[in-house]
Amino acid sequence: MQERPITDWLPLTKKEVEKRGWDELDVILISGDAYVDHPAFGTAVIGRIMESEGLKVGIVAQPNWQDDLRDFRKLGKPKYFFGVTAGCMDSMVNHYTANKRLRSNDSYTPGGEAGFRPDYATTVYSNILKEIYPDVPVLIGGIEASLRRVTHYDYWADKLFPSILVDSKADMLVYGMGEQPLREIIRGVKSGKQLSELTDINQVAFIQKQSDALPAVGDWETVELASHEVCLEDKIKYASNFKIVEVESNKWQANRITQAVGADLLVINPPFKTMEEVEMDKSFDLPYTRLPHPKYKKRGPIPAYEMIKFSVNMHRGCFGGCSFCTISAHQGKFIASRSEKSIMKEVDEITKHPEFKGYISDLGGPSANMYRMKGKDESICAKCVSPSCIHPVICNNLDTNHTPLTEIYRKVDAHPGIKKAFVGSGVRYDLLVDDFNKNNQDGNHDEYMEQLITRHVSGRLKVAPEHTSDATLRVMRKPSFKYFHAFKKKYDEISAKFGLKQPLIPYFISSHPGCEEEDMANLAAETKDLGFQLEQVQDFTPTPMTVAEVIYYSGVHPYTLQPIKTAKTREEKQNQNKYFFWYKAEYKDWIRNRLTYLKRPDLAQRLLGFRNNKTSWKK
């Protein structure tokens, strides 16, 4: 295989900068992830966008923050600003389990090795840059910055933090998917403006003095949140803040948000409208090598890259609005889809990859089957303030036609370089259940399901009912478990029709707000009755900018301000989690004793059967 020239990647070293004939960089990106030049990795996307706008861009990937800080100096001082991101994950989620145990690996590091980024990476990197280069502006972005843009509860420190702009000392924050605000920022700095002057751009946040007048921008109206100091004293005010932030984040014509922090004022400008197809294509069609930087060859594969290198992301956003999920908080609830031409072009690119053997691992997105779904009458969407298009019921204005997606599956199938294309993303099964989704035009959901099941399942199909308790599911913003039963029935019928044995793999969460221990025992019994021994399970982790995080911290639902019980101690969380594994010998006695203590011997019988010998029923 012929090696590509190093100049095909954005430069990581001074030598690579010089090979391009550059004396100075316009922007230097600091990232908590290794540099993979692929559209699934945010640093690559941001770097390539800047490059497309004519900027000279360099990357410092996973700098050492514990030595003499030479990594932060190695590319020199940029002409315009430093861009800082923790990477594709919040650094605390990346580092710690739900039990706050340190993880032993990092999927965004060569060899999966842990320890190559700090806790609260955005803040650490930004503070270092401010110390070394006090006169150079710092722009922060990515998941960590985006979801920590206002006062937020941090599960790992067990306290409220102010906007990340305060602790990081950064000059500006880009939230959400950054292509649109970034292009505006680049045009602004190229015209001679400072970052601090670009206060009229959508989808950015910054800090100003409370005594200063707010920038006058068109017809923007402003909504004021309870101050950070009030939130520290009043959990209900904190919960009320969240509702405002979530509603404004999901509107087409949103208001500007402000929040007092000490003598300062946090200002969050309204988001851009969701990207159109042309804009999406422009982002995905940039000249990515689709490969990790060659410097990592001797350090081993990067697990996150290995997982997605032969996958195609067809859309962004999610209109589910699940209480525990950050996708809509970061990517938005409105779906931004690529054109069929752009998708097929990427399929062509994948077939040229030196290691490609003919199998695409995923044709998907945040949810596999939301491609091209939007409002039938978008003027209704323009006024909508609901955080979900499908909870508590599916909006009758939502076009859930699966035909465009089915057609793409067929075209990829017909590609001469493709042996098989799988759907690895989770399928939103409730969209495919007619009892729940009344918007099934011409039965196209059944056609989609048949195409999916017969052609695109790699042994097993992932779906996420998340729970069996209707009360818990309402808090999660998920549909009743009865619809999973209906989906499974249809799935089994199609599988039997074609003689296929491809098990469903359901995902579940324990300890979610609104879930009590008996609910978990019921979950175990109900899934056992369906023939499942659960594997894909997780304990709830409160992550910033989610409804569930607000409930966990405040004890109330941010929309109703009514109390909701939540498992909070390690013992309570572990107790709930154990029910997933009723089939393991080491848990059987504990479950039997525990259910007897809870006065639910009926559940013990369903899970384990009766035992005649006497046992001490202690908590």
UniProtKB/TrEMBL annotation:
<dbReference type="InterPro" id="IPR022946">
    <property type="entry name" value="UPF0313"/>
</dbReference>
<dbReference type="InterPro" id="IPR013704">
    <property type="entry name" value="UPF0313_N"/>
</dbReference>
<keyword id="KW-0411">Iron-sulfur</keyword>
<dbReference type="Pfam" id="PF08497">
    <property type="entry name" value="Radical_SAM_N"/>
</dbReference>
<feature type="binding site">
    <location>
        <position position="318"/>
    </location>
    <ligand>
        <name>[4Fe-4S] cluster</name>
    </ligand>
</feature>
<dbReference type="InterPro" id="IPR020612">
    <property type="entry name" value="Methylthiotransferase_CS"/>
</dbReference>
<feature type="binding site">
    <location>
        <position position="322"/>
    </location>
    <ligand>
        <name>[4Fe-4S] cluster</name>
    </ligand>
</feature>
<keyword id="KW-0408">Iron</keyword>
<comment type="similarity">
    <text>Belongs to the UPF0313 family.</text>
</comment>
<feature type="binding site">
    <location>
        <position position="325"/>
    </location>
    <ligand>
        <name>[4Fe-4S] cluster</name>
    </ligand>
</feature>
<dbReference type="InterPro" id="IPR058240">
    <property type="entry name" value="rSAM_sf"/>
</dbReference>
<keyword id="KW-0479">Metal-binding</keyword>
<dbReference type="InterPro" id="IPR007197">
    <property type="entry name" value="rSAM"/>
</dbReference>
<protein>
    <submittedName>
        <fullName>YgiQ family radical SAM protein</fullName>
    </submittedName>
</protein>
<dbReference type="InterPro" id="IPR023404">
    <property type="entry name" value="rSAM_horseshoe"/>
</dbReference>
<keyword id="KW-0004">4Fe-4S</keyword>
<dbReference type="InterPro" id="IPR006638">
    <property type="entry name" value="Elp3/MiaA/NifB-like_rSAM"/>
</dbReference>
<keyword id="KW-0949">S-adenosyl-L-methionine</keyword>
<feature type="domain" description="Radical SAM core">
    <location>
        <begin position="304"/>
        <end position="584"/>
    </location>
</feature>
